[in-house]
Protein backbone atom coordinates (compact mmCIF):
# COMPACT_ATOMS: atom_id res chain seq x y z
CA UNK A 1 0.00 0.00 0.00
CA UNK A 2 1.22 3.51 -0.79
CA UNK A 3 1.05 5.86 2.23
CA UNK A 4 -0.67 9.19 1.64
CA UNK A 5 0.16 12.00 4.09
CA UNK A 6 -2.77 14.07 5.35
CA UNK A 7 -2.14 17.78 5.98
CA UNK A 8 -4.89 19.57 7.88
CA UNK A 9 -5.23 23.33 7.47
CA UNK A 10 -8.54 23.84 9.30
CA UNK A 11 -6.78 26.13 11.77
CA UNK A 12 -5.11 28.23 9.04
CA UNK A 13 -6.87 28.22 5.64
CA UNK A 14 -10.14 27.21 7.30
CA UNK A 15 -10.04 29.72 10.12
CA UNK A 16 -8.61 32.75 8.33
CA UNK A 17 -11.26 32.71 5.68
CA UNK A 18 -14.18 32.67 8.06
CA UNK A 19 -13.15 35.92 9.66
CA UNK A 20 -13.66 34.05 12.91
CA UNK A 21 -10.87 34.23 15.37
CA UNK A 22 -10.47 31.06 17.32
CA UNK A 23 -8.84 31.64 20.67
CA UNK A 24 -5.95 29.46 21.66
CA UNK A 25 -8.13 27.15 23.79
CA UNK A 26 -10.44 26.52 20.87
CA UNK A 27 -7.47 25.89 18.59
CA UNK A 28 -6.02 23.42 21.09
CA UNK A 29 -9.35 21.61 21.40
CA UNK A 30 -9.58 21.20 17.63
CA UNK A 31 -5.89 20.30 17.29
CA UNK A 32 -6.11 17.60 19.98
CA UNK A 33 -9.02 16.07 18.12
CA UNK A 34 -7.04 16.24 14.85
CA UNK A 35 -4.24 14.30 16.56
CA UNK A 36 -6.82 11.71 17.65
CA UNK A 37 -8.06 11.62 14.06
CA UNK A 38 -4.54 10.76 12.98
CA UNK A 39 -3.62 13.54 10.54
CA UNK A 40 0.11 13.80 9.79
CA UNK A 41 0.46 17.58 9.69
CA UNK A 42 -1.45 20.34 11.48
CA UNK A 43 -1.07 23.80 9.97
CA UNK A 44 -1.59 25.80 13.14
CA UNK A 45 -1.72 29.34 11.76
CA UNK A 46 0.07 32.24 10.10
CA UNK A 47 2.33 33.56 12.87
CA UNK A 48 3.35 36.80 11.12
CA UNK A 49 -0.27 37.89 10.76
CA UNK A 50 -0.48 39.05 14.38
CA UNK A 51 1.10 38.60 17.81
CA UNK A 52 -2.05 36.66 18.80
CA UNK A 53 -1.58 34.14 16.01
CA UNK A 54 2.11 33.79 16.75
CA UNK A 55 1.27 33.03 20.38
CA UNK A 56 -1.34 30.44 19.51
CA UNK A 57 0.98 28.66 17.05
CA UNK A 58 3.63 28.70 19.77
CA UNK A 59 1.20 27.09 22.25
CA UNK A 60 0.12 24.41 19.77
CA UNK A 61 3.75 23.72 18.88
CA UNK A 62 4.55 23.20 22.55
CA UNK A 63 1.51 21.07 23.41
CA UNK A 64 1.05 18.79 20.40
CA UNK A 65 3.01 15.56 20.30
CA UNK A 66 3.45 12.95 17.60
CA UNK A 67 2.38 15.25 14.76
CA UNK A 68 4.11 17.75 12.47
CA UNK A 69 3.14 21.30 13.48
CA UNK A 70 3.37 23.73 10.62
CA UNK A 71 3.23 27.52 10.30
CA UNK A 72 2.54 29.50 7.12
CA UNK A 73 4.68 32.35 5.87
CA UNK A 74 5.04 34.40 2.73
CA UNK A 75 8.45 34.42 1.06
CA UNK A 76 9.40 37.25 3.36
CA UNK A 77 12.18 37.12 5.91
CA UNK A 78 10.02 38.59 8.69
CA UNK A 79 7.28 35.96 8.17
CA UNK A 80 9.78 33.12 8.22
CA UNK A 81 11.42 34.47 11.39
CA UNK A 82 7.98 34.65 13.08
CA UNK A 83 7.23 31.08 11.98
CA UNK A 84 10.55 29.81 13.29
CA UNK A 85 10.04 31.60 16.59
CA UNK A 86 6.54 30.17 17.07
CA UNK A 87 7.67 26.62 16.19
CA UNK A 88 10.74 26.59 18.44
CA UNK A 89 9.29 24.09 20.93
CA UNK A 90 7.59 21.82 18.37
CA UNK A 91 8.55 18.16 18.37
CA UNK A 92 8.30 18.10 14.55
CA UNK A 93 8.31 21.67 13.18
CA UNK A 94 7.62 22.56 9.55
CA UNK A 95 7.79 25.98 7.89
CA UNK A 96 5.41 26.39 4.94
CA UNK A 97 6.66 29.25 2.82
CA UNK A 98 5.93 30.26 -0.74
CA UNK A 99 5.04 32.77 -3.37
CA UNK A 100 2.60 33.05 -6.28
CA UNK A 101 3.76 31.72 -9.64
CA UNK A 102 0.90 32.49 -12.08
CA UNK A 103 1.29 35.38 -14.56
CA UNK A 104 -1.69 37.28 -13.13
CA UNK A 105 -0.35 37.11 -9.58
CA UNK A 106 3.26 37.90 -10.51
CA UNK A 107 2.34 40.83 -12.76
CA UNK A 108 -0.68 42.33 -11.04
CA UNK A 109 -0.22 41.53 -7.37
CA UNK A 110 3.48 41.00 -6.72
CA UNK A 111 4.75 43.25 -9.55
CA UNK A 112 7.74 40.95 -9.90
CA UNK A 113 9.39 39.37 -12.94
CA UNK A 114 9.54 35.55 -13.14
CA UNK A 115 13.28 35.72 -12.36
CA UNK A 116 12.62 37.77 -9.23
CA UNK A 117 9.99 35.24 -8.15
CA UNK A 118 12.45 32.36 -8.53
CA UNK A 119 15.06 34.32 -6.60
CA UNK A 120 12.62 35.11 -3.76
CA UNK A 121 11.38 31.50 -3.62
CA UNK A 122 14.88 30.07 -3.35
CA UNK A 123 15.94 32.69 -0.80
CA UNK A 124 12.84 31.94 1.31
CA UNK A 125 13.51 28.20 1.39
CA UNK A 126 17.18 28.77 2.23
CA UNK A 127 16.21 31.13 5.03
CA UNK A 128 13.65 28.67 6.45
CA UNK A 129 16.23 25.87 6.27
CA UNK A 130 18.40 27.83 8.74
CA UNK A 131 15.73 27.07 11.34
CA UNK A 132 14.15 23.72 10.46
CA UNK A 133 14.96 20.75 8.26
CA UNK A 134 11.35 20.27 7.15
CA UNK A 135 10.41 23.07 4.73
CA UNK A 136 7.33 22.98 2.53
CA UNK A 137 7.20 25.35 -0.43
CA UNK A 138 3.85 26.49 -1.88
CA UNK A 139 3.65 27.70 -5.45
CA UNK A 140 0.50 29.79 -5.04
CA UNK A 141 -1.93 29.63 -7.97
CA UNK A 142 0.17 26.83 -9.48
CA UNK A 143 -2.75 25.60 -11.54
CA UNK A 144 -2.89 28.86 -13.54
CA UNK A 145 0.89 29.05 -13.93
CA UNK A 146 2.88 28.23 -17.06
CA UNK A 147 3.99 24.66 -16.45
CA UNK A 148 7.63 25.04 -17.60
CA UNK A 149 7.97 27.99 -15.21
CA UNK A 150 6.33 25.99 -12.39
CA UNK A 151 8.80 23.16 -13.01
CA UNK A 152 11.71 25.62 -12.94
CA UNK A 153 10.61 27.10 -9.59
CA UNK A 154 10.07 23.68 -8.02
CA UNK A 155 13.41 22.33 -9.22
CA UNK A 156 15.21 25.29 -7.68
CA UNK A 157 13.40 25.22 -4.34
CA UNK A 158 14.02 21.49 -4.01
CA UNK A 159 17.70 22.13 -4.75
CA UNK A 160 17.56 24.77 -1.99
CA UNK A 161 16.24 22.18 0.46
CA UNK A 162 12.42 22.07 0.22
CA UNK A 163 11.20 18.70 1.46
CA UNK A 164 7.61 19.12 0.28
CA UNK A 165 6.33 21.08 -2.75
CA UNK A 166 2.72 22.21 -2.71
CA UNK A 167 1.03 22.96 -6.06
CA UNK A 168 -2.31 24.54 -5.17
CA UNK A 169 -5.36 25.24 -7.24
CA UNK A 170 -5.75 28.43 -5.24
CA UNK A 171 -8.89 29.65 -7.00
CA UNK A 172 -10.66 26.31 -7.52
CA UNK A 173 -10.44 26.53 -11.31
CA UNK A 174 -9.24 23.02 -12.20
CA UNK A 175 -11.09 19.94 -13.35
CA UNK A 176 -9.91 16.51 -12.17
CA UNK A 177 -8.18 15.44 -15.39
CA UNK A 178 -6.41 18.80 -15.75
CA UNK A 179 -5.25 18.77 -12.14
CA UNK A 180 -3.96 15.21 -12.56
CA UNK A 181 -2.11 16.37 -15.71
CA UNK A 182 -0.38 19.08 -13.69
CA UNK A 183 0.74 16.59 -11.03
CA UNK A 184 2.06 14.25 -13.74
CA UNK A 185 3.84 17.15 -15.46
CA UNK A 186 5.59 18.06 -12.23
CA UNK A 187 6.56 14.43 -11.59
CA UNK A 188 7.95 14.10 -15.13
CA UNK A 189 9.63 17.49 -15.64
CA UNK A 190 11.19 18.38 -12.29
CA UNK A 191 14.49 16.52 -12.40
CA UNK A 192 14.96 16.30 -8.60
CA UNK A 193 11.28 15.61 -7.72
CA UNK A 194 12.25 12.30 -6.05
CA UNK A 195 13.82 14.41 -3.25
CA UNK A 196 10.49 15.98 -2.24
CA UNK A 197 6.91 14.99 -1.54
CA UNK A 198 4.39 16.48 -3.99
CA UNK A 199 1.49 18.03 -2.08
CA UNK A 200 -1.90 19.02 -3.45
CA UNK A 201 -4.14 21.79 -2.16
CA UNK A 202 -7.49 22.48 -3.82
CA UNK A 203 -10.30 24.97 -3.40
CA UNK A 204 -13.93 24.26 -4.13
CA UNK A 205 -15.10 27.17 -6.29
CA UNK A 206 -16.48 24.82 -8.96
CA UNK A 207 -17.44 22.11 -6.47
CA UNK A 208 -14.55 19.90 -7.59
CA UNK A 209 -12.03 20.15 -4.75
CA UNK A 210 -12.50 16.54 -3.61
CA UNK A 211 -12.51 15.17 -7.17
CA UNK A 212 -9.41 17.21 -8.06
CA UNK A 213 -7.62 16.01 -4.93
CA UNK A 214 -8.42 12.36 -5.60
CA UNK A 215 -7.25 12.83 -9.22
CA UNK A 216 -4.03 14.43 -7.95
CA UNK A 217 -3.45 11.53 -5.56
CA UNK A 218 -4.02 9.00 -8.34
CA UNK A 219 -1.50 10.93 -10.45
CA UNK A 220 1.15 10.43 -7.77
CA UNK A 221 0.82 13.18 -5.13
CA UNK A 222 2.12 12.05 -1.75
CA UNK A 223 0.33 14.56 0.48
CA UNK A 224 -3.18 16.00 0.40
CA UNK A 225 -4.16 19.26 2.09
CA UNK A 226 -7.61 20.28 3.22
CA UNK A 227 -9.90 21.16 6.08
CA UNK A 228 -12.53 19.41 8.17
CA UNK A 229 -16.02 19.94 6.74
CA UNK A 230 -14.32 21.71 3.81
CA UNK A 231 -14.43 25.08 5.56
CA UNK A 232 -12.33 27.76 3.94
CA UNK A 233 -12.02 30.73 1.65
CA UNK A 234 -15.08 31.39 -0.58
CA UNK A 235 -16.58 27.96 -1.43
CA UNK A 236 -14.10 26.27 0.86
CA UNK A 237 -11.12 23.93 0.73
CA UNK A 238 -11.01 20.22 -0.01
CA UNK A 239 -12.99 18.31 2.66
CA UNK A 240 -10.40 16.03 4.18
CA UNK A 241 -13.02 13.57 5.40
CA UNK A 242 -14.30 13.15 1.84
CA UNK A 243 -10.86 12.46 0.38
CA UNK A 244 -9.93 10.11 3.20
CA UNK A 245 -13.15 8.14 2.78
CA UNK A 246 -12.83 8.07 -1.03
CA UNK A 247 -9.37 6.53 -0.60
CA UNK A 248 -10.56 4.20 2.15
CA UNK A 249 -13.65 3.00 0.30
CA UNK A 250 -11.61 2.21 -2.81
CA UNK A 251 -8.50 1.00 -0.97
CA UNK A 252 -8.37 -2.41 -2.61
CA UNK A 253 -8.48 -0.80 -6.07
CA UNK A 254 -6.26 2.23 -5.37
CA UNK A 255 -3.74 0.55 -3.03
CA UNK A 256 -3.39 3.76 -1.01
CA UNK A 257 -3.73 4.21 2.75
CA UNK A 258 -3.68 7.10 5.22
CA UNK A 259 -2.95 7.21 8.94
CA UNK A 260 -6.45 8.50 9.67
CA UNK A 261 -8.61 6.72 12.25
CA UNK A 262 -11.86 7.01 10.30
CA UNK A 263 -13.92 6.36 13.45
CA UNK A 264 -12.97 9.84 14.69
CA UNK A 265 -14.31 11.60 11.57
CA UNK A 266 -17.81 12.26 12.84
CA UNK A 267 -16.62 13.60 16.23
CA UNK A 268 -14.05 15.85 14.53
CA UNK A 269 -16.65 17.26 12.17
CA UNK A 270 -19.05 18.07 15.01
CA UNK A 271 -16.35 19.69 17.09
CA UNK A 272 -15.17 21.93 14.23
CA UNK A 273 -18.76 22.90 13.45
CA UNK A 274 -19.52 23.70 17.10
CA UNK A 275 -16.38 25.75 17.68
CA UNK A 276 -16.40 27.69 14.40
CA UNK A 277 -20.18 28.11 14.35
CA UNK A 278 -20.26 26.90 10.73
CA UNK A 279 -23.11 24.38 10.39
CA UNK A 280 -22.68 21.17 8.37
CA UNK A 281 -25.40 20.88 5.70
CA UNK A 282 -27.63 17.82 6.20
CA UNK A 283 -26.75 16.45 2.74
CA UNK A 284 -22.98 16.93 3.11
CA UNK A 285 -21.06 13.80 2.10
CA UNK A 286 -19.71 11.65 4.97
CA UNK A 287 -20.61 14.00 7.86
CA UNK A 288 -24.04 15.47 6.99
CA UNK A 289 -26.98 14.53 9.22
CA UNK A 290 -28.63 12.71 6.30
CA UNK A 291 -25.47 11.06 4.93
CA UNK A 292 -26.61 7.62 6.17
CA UNK A 293 -30.40 8.08 6.18
CA UNK A 294 -32.54 6.08 3.79
CA UNK A 295 -35.87 7.73 3.18
CA UNK A 296 -37.45 6.12 0.14
CA UNK A 297 -39.30 2.85 0.57
CA UNK A 298 -37.30 1.07 -2.15
CA UNK A 299 -33.99 2.06 -0.56
CA UNK A 300 -35.16 1.13 2.95
CA UNK A 301 -36.27 -2.25 1.67
CA UNK A 302 -32.91 -2.78 -0.07
CA UNK A 303 -30.83 -1.77 2.95
CA UNK A 304 -32.85 -4.06 5.23
CA UNK A 305 -32.22 -6.99 2.87
CA UNK A 306 -28.56 -6.19 2.33
CA UNK A 307 -26.93 -3.00 3.66
CA UNK A 308 -24.53 -2.63 0.73
CA UNK A 309 -27.34 -2.28 -1.80
CA UNK A 310 -27.59 1.43 -1.02
CA UNK A 311 -24.81 2.03 1.50
CA UNK A 312 -21.19 2.21 0.36
CA UNK A 313 -19.86 3.10 3.82
CA UNK A 314 -20.79 1.40 7.06
CA UNK A 315 -21.70 4.45 9.23
CA UNK A 316 -19.82 2.93 12.16
CA UNK A 317 -16.59 3.26 10.17
CA UNK A 318 -16.86 7.06 10.37
CA UNK A 319 -17.97 7.00 14.01
CA UNK A 320 -21.74 7.03 13.60
CA UNK A 321 -22.95 4.16 15.79
CA UNK A 322 -25.97 2.03 14.99
CA UNK A 323 -29.08 3.38 16.59
CA UNK A 324 -30.18 0.44 18.70
CA UNK A 325 -31.82 2.18 21.65
CA UNK A 326 -33.79 5.36 22.02
CA UNK A 327 -33.20 7.03 25.35
CA UNK A 328 -36.06 8.42 27.41
CA UNK A 329 -36.72 9.58 30.96
CA UNK A 330 -36.87 5.88 31.92
CA UNK A 331 -33.28 5.28 30.80
CA UNK A 332 -30.86 4.75 33.62
CA UNK A 333 -27.38 6.12 34.15
CA UNK A 334 -25.80 3.01 32.63
CA UNK A 335 -27.71 3.26 29.34
CA UNK A 336 -27.04 7.00 29.21
CA UNK A 337 -23.32 6.56 29.74
CA UNK A 338 -23.14 3.64 27.30
CA UNK A 339 -24.71 5.70 24.54
CA UNK A 340 -22.42 8.65 25.24
CA UNK A 341 -19.42 6.35 24.94
CA UNK A 342 -20.73 4.93 21.67
CA UNK A 343 -20.90 8.50 20.41
CA UNK A 344 -17.30 9.12 21.49
CA UNK A 345 -17.85 11.02 24.77
CA UNK A 346 -16.10 9.83 27.92
CA UNK A 347 -17.20 12.23 30.67
CA UNK A 348 -15.37 12.25 33.98
CA UNK A 349 -17.20 10.30 36.71
CA UNK A 350 -17.73 13.48 38.75
CA UNK A 351 -19.48 15.23 35.81
CA UNK A 352 -21.67 12.28 34.95
CA UNK A 353 -24.39 13.00 37.51
CA UNK A 354 -24.81 16.63 36.37
CA UNK A 355 -24.98 15.47 32.77
CA UNK A 356 -27.48 12.77 33.66
CA UNK A 357 -29.70 15.31 35.43
CA UNK A 358 -29.59 17.59 32.34
CA UNK A 359 -30.43 14.56 30.23
CA UNK A 360 -33.45 13.74 32.45
CA UNK A 361 -34.67 17.32 32.19
CA UNK A 362 -34.39 17.11 28.41
CA UNK A 363 -36.08 13.70 28.33
CA UNK A 364 -38.98 15.11 30.37
CA UNK A 365 -39.41 17.90 27.84
CA UNK A 366 -38.92 15.80 24.70
CA UNK A 367 -39.99 12.26 25.48
CA UNK A 368 -37.41 10.59 23.23
CA UNK A 369 -33.79 11.70 23.23
CA UNK A 370 -31.89 11.15 19.96
CA UNK A 371 -28.16 11.14 19.24
CA UNK A 372 -28.25 14.72 17.97
CA UNK A 373 -29.79 15.78 21.29
CA UNK A 374 -26.93 14.09 23.13
CA UNK A 375 -24.36 15.81 20.90
CA UNK A 376 -26.04 19.11 21.65
CA UNK A 377 -26.14 18.32 25.36
CA UNK A 378 -22.43 17.49 25.37
CA UNK A 379 -21.55 20.53 23.28
CA UNK A 380 -23.49 22.72 25.66
CA UNK A 381 -21.89 21.24 28.73
CA UNK A 382 -18.47 22.21 27.39
CA UNK A 383 -19.35 25.89 27.65
CA UNK A 384 -20.56 25.68 31.22
CA UNK A 385 -18.76 27.33 34.12
CA UNK A 386 -19.73 30.83 33.07
CA UNK A 387 -20.32 33.63 35.57
CA UNK A 388 -23.53 34.67 33.77
CA UNK A 389 -26.52 32.40 34.27
CA UNK A 390 -30.08 32.85 33.09
CA UNK A 391 -32.57 32.87 35.96
CA UNK A 392 -35.72 33.90 34.11
CA UNK A 393 -36.91 35.21 30.77
CA UNK A 394 -40.43 36.42 30.06
CA UNK A 395 -41.60 37.93 26.82
CA UNK A 396 -44.81 39.68 25.84
CA UNK A 397 -45.59 40.46 22.24
CA UNK A 398 -47.82 43.15 20.76
CA UNK A 399 -48.64 42.73 17.11
CA UNK A 400 -46.42 40.94 14.63
CA UNK A 401 -43.07 42.38 15.57
CA UNK A 402 -43.07 44.43 18.78
CA UNK A 403 -41.99 42.54 21.89
CA UNK A 404 -40.95 43.34 25.43
CA UNK A 405 -38.59 41.05 27.30
CA UNK A 406 -37.86 40.96 31.01
CA UNK A 407 -34.67 39.06 31.79
CA UNK A 408 -33.23 38.10 35.16
CA UNK A 409 -29.59 37.06 35.17
CA UNK A 410 -27.31 35.84 37.89
CA UNK A 411 -24.21 37.97 37.30
CA UNK A 412 -21.20 36.96 39.38
CA UNK A 413 -23.62 35.56 41.99
CA UNK A 414 -25.96 38.61 42.07
CA UNK A 415 -29.51 38.56 40.69
CA UNK A 416 -30.31 41.49 38.41
CA UNK A 417 -33.35 42.17 36.26
CA UNK A 418 -33.94 44.53 33.35
CA UNK A 419 -36.39 44.87 30.49
CA UNK A 420 -36.19 46.05 26.89
CA UNK A 421 -38.39 46.39 23.82
CA UNK A 422 -37.34 44.97 20.50
CA UNK A 423 -38.25 44.04 17.01
CA UNK A 424 -39.52 40.56 17.91
CA UNK A 425 -38.85 38.43 21.01
CA UNK A 426 -35.22 37.49 20.27
CA UNK A 427 -34.24 41.10 19.60
CA UNK A 428 -35.97 42.20 22.84
CA UNK A 429 -34.18 39.51 24.89
CA UNK A 430 -30.80 40.43 23.42
CA UNK A 431 -31.37 44.11 24.15
CA UNK A 432 -32.32 43.29 27.76
CA UNK A 433 -29.17 41.16 28.14
CA UNK A 434 -27.10 44.03 26.71
CA UNK A 435 -28.53 46.38 29.34
CA UNK A 436 -27.66 43.90 32.08
CA UNK A 437 -24.19 42.82 30.94
CA UNK A 438 -23.03 46.07 29.35
CA UNK A 439 -20.49 44.50 27.00
CA UNK A 440 -20.02 46.66 23.84
CA UNK A 441 -20.54 44.15 21.03
CA UNK A 442 -22.41 44.18 17.72
CA UNK A 443 -24.53 41.21 16.76
CA UNK A 444 -23.44 40.28 13.21
CA UNK A 445 -25.15 36.99 12.59
CA UNK A 446 -27.85 34.85 14.14
CA UNK A 447 -29.02 31.42 13.06
CA UNK A 448 -31.45 28.98 14.57
CA UNK A 449 -31.80 25.37 13.62
CA UNK A 450 -33.51 22.30 14.89
CA UNK A 451 -31.07 19.81 16.35
CA UNK A 452 -33.12 16.63 16.22
CA UNK A 453 -36.51 15.30 15.32
CA UNK A 454 -39.95 15.62 16.92
CA UNK A 455 -42.14 18.57 17.79
CA UNK A 456 -40.17 19.08 21.00
CA UNK A 457 -36.85 19.07 19.12
CA UNK A 458 -34.01 21.08 20.59
CA UNK A 459 -33.35 24.43 18.96
CA UNK A 460 -29.73 25.37 18.49
CA UNK A 461 -28.96 29.07 18.18
CA UNK A 462 -25.61 30.35 16.92
CA UNK A 463 -24.63 33.99 17.14
CA UNK A 464 -21.59 35.85 15.86
CA UNK A 465 -20.76 39.05 17.68
CA UNK A 466 -18.08 41.59 16.77
CA UNK A 467 -16.28 43.09 19.77
CA UNK A 468 -14.77 46.53 20.07
CA UNK A 469 -11.34 45.44 18.76
CA UNK A 470 -12.92 43.93 15.63
CA UNK A 471 -12.65 40.27 16.62
CA UNK A 472 -15.60 38.04 15.68
CA UNK A 473 -16.71 35.64 18.40
CA UNK A 474 -19.11 32.71 18.07
CA UNK A 475 -21.66 31.79 20.74
CA UNK A 476 -23.91 28.82 20.81
CA UNK A 477 -26.89 27.78 22.92
CA UNK A 478 -29.44 25.00 22.95
CA UNK A 479 -32.83 24.57 24.52
CA UNK A 480 -36.25 23.20 23.67
CA UNK A 481 -37.32 26.86 23.94
CA UNK A 482 -35.88 28.80 21.00
CA UNK A 483 -35.92 32.14 22.88
CA UNK A 484 -33.90 30.59 25.68
CA UNK A 485 -31.54 28.94 23.13
CA UNK A 486 -30.98 32.40 21.60
CA UNK A 487 -30.32 33.98 25.00
CA UNK A 488 -27.90 31.20 25.90
CA UNK A 489 -26.02 31.63 22.62
CA UNK A 490 -25.71 35.36 23.13
CA UNK A 491 -24.54 34.94 26.71
CA UNK A 492 -22.08 32.24 25.62
CA UNK A 493 -20.53 34.77 23.19
CA UNK A 494 -20.48 37.55 25.82
CA UNK A 495 -18.69 35.27 28.30
CA UNK A 496 -16.02 34.58 25.67
CA UNK A 497 -15.66 38.29 24.94
CA UNK A 498 -15.35 39.08 28.65
CA UNK A 499 -12.69 36.40 29.09
CA UNK A 500 -10.77 37.83 26.16
CA UNK A 501 -10.94 41.31 27.65
CA UNK A 502 -9.56 39.91 30.91
CA UNK A 503 -6.65 38.46 28.97
CA UNK A 504 -7.85 34.86 29.26
CA UNK A 505 -8.25 33.18 25.86
CA UNK A 506 -6.51 35.95 23.90
CA UNK A 507 -7.62 35.42 20.34
CA UNK A 508 -5.51 34.24 17.50
CA UNK A 509 -6.21 37.17 15.20
CA UNK A 510 -6.86 35.83 11.78
CA UNK A 511 -7.04 38.87 9.58
CA UNK A 512 -4.24 38.45 7.13
CA UNK A 513 -2.63 41.53 5.66
CA UNK A 514 -3.32 41.48 1.96
CA UNK A 515 -0.45 43.78 1.09
CA UNK A 516 1.73 41.25 -0.64
CA UNK A 517 2.70 43.95 -3.17
CA UNK A 518 4.87 45.40 -0.39
CA UNK A 519 7.12 42.45 -1.06
CA UNK A 520 10.40 42.35 0.75
CA UNK A 521 13.18 40.88 -1.29
CA UNK A 522 15.34 38.62 0.80
O1 LIG B 1 -4.75 28.24 -1.63
C1 LIG B 1 -3.53 28.49 -1.52
O2 LIG B 1 -2.82 28.72 -2.49
C2 LIG B 1 -2.98 28.53 -0.16
C3 LIG B 1 -1.49 28.66 -0.03
C4 LIG B 1 -1.14 29.80 0.87
C5 LIG B 1 -0.91 27.37 0.46
O3 LIG B 1 -3.69 28.41 0.80
ZN1 LIG C 1 -5.69 27.60 0.21
From TrEMBL:
Matches recorded under InterPro entries: 2-IPM_HCS-like, 2-isopropylmalate_synth_dimer, AIPM/Hcit_synth_CS, Aldolase_TIM, LeuA/HCS_post-cat, LeuA_allosteric_dom_sf, LeuA_bact_synth, PYR_CT
EC number from the UniProt entry: 2.3.3.13
A molecular function (GO) term: manganese ion binding
Region (Regulatory domain): 389-522
GO aspect biological process, one term: L-leucine biosynthetic process
Needed co-factor(s): Mn(2+)
Annotated residues for binding of Mn(2+): 13, 201, 203, 237
Uppermost EC category: transferase
Reactions mediated catalytically: 3-methyl-2-oxobutanoate + acetyl-CoA + H2O = (2S)-2-isopropylmalate + CoA + H(+)
Functional pathway: Amino-acid biosynthesis; L-leucine biosynthesis; L-leucine from 3-methyl-2-oxobutanoate: step 1/4
Origin superkingdom: Bacteria
Swiss-Prot/TrEMBL keywords: Amino-acid biosynthesis, Branched-chain amino acid biosynthesis, Cytoplasm, Leucine biosynthesis, Manganese, Metal-binding, Transferase
CDD domains linked to this entry: DRE_TIM_IPMS
Keyword Manganese: yes
Domain Pyruvate carboxyltransferase residue range list: 4-266
SUPFAM superfamilies: 2-isopropylmalate synthase LeuA, allosteric (dimerisation) domain, Aldolase
GO cellular component: cytoplasm
Family of the protein in this entry: Belongs to the alpha-IPM synthase/homocitrate synthase family. LeuA type 1 subfamily.
Annotated function: Catalyzes the condensation of the acetyl group of acetyl-CoA with 3-methyl-2-oxobutanoate (2-ketoisovalerate) to form 3-carboxy-3-hydroxy-4-methylpentanoate (2-isopropylmalate).
HAMAP family (UniProt xref): LeuA_type1 (MF_01025)
Quaternary structure (record): Homodimer.
Annotated protein name in UniProt: 2-isopropylmalate synthase
Organism: Desulfoscipio gibsoniae DSM 7213
